[in-house]
Design a protein that fits this description.
Number of helices: 5
Radius of gyration: 28 Å
Largest sheet: none
Helix content: over 70%
Distance between the termini: 67 Å
Protein name: Multidrug transporter
Number of strands: 0
Organism: Desulfosoma caldarium
Keywords: Membrane, Signal, Transmembrane, Transmembrane helix
């Protein structure tokens, strides 16, 4: 019984020491708030324009790129540029349309 008591005291002492080190392991409390403040969310008008104008144009670009890839594929196969053709004509329009966050456009100017 005395052995369990010593083991219990050692376990509690170890837990206390580990709890004392918790602030050292924790992330800076202001970091998350500073990151969220730095990320500016686009306003509703830009999001609406993205949904009504940019995304339908992106869907059309995906369709045109797919057709262009099928047409260019025989020529690209002979020149060894199939990867470049599919990247530019299929992957980039798809990423622009379906993987980009709503209201955020690549290469847009941001206020500092």
């Amino acid at each position: 019984m005395k052995r369990w008591g010593i083991l219990w005291v050692c376990a509690m002492a170890l837990a206390g020491v580990l709890m004392a080190w918790q602030p050292v392991w924790a992330e800076n409390p202001g970091t998350y708030a500073q990151q969220k403040a730095a990320e500016s969310s686009p306003d509703g008008g830009i999001m609406l324009a993205d949904v009504l104008i940019a995304r339908p144009i992106g869907i059309a670009a995906c369709a045109v790129g797919l057709v262009g890839t099928v047409i260019a594929l025989p020529f690209a196969a002979f020149s060894g540029s199939v990867d470049a053709v599919t990247e530019k004509l299929v992957a980039e329009p798809f990423a622009y349309t379906f993987q980009r966050p709503l209201g955020q456009f690549p290469g847009e100017l941001t206020a500092r």
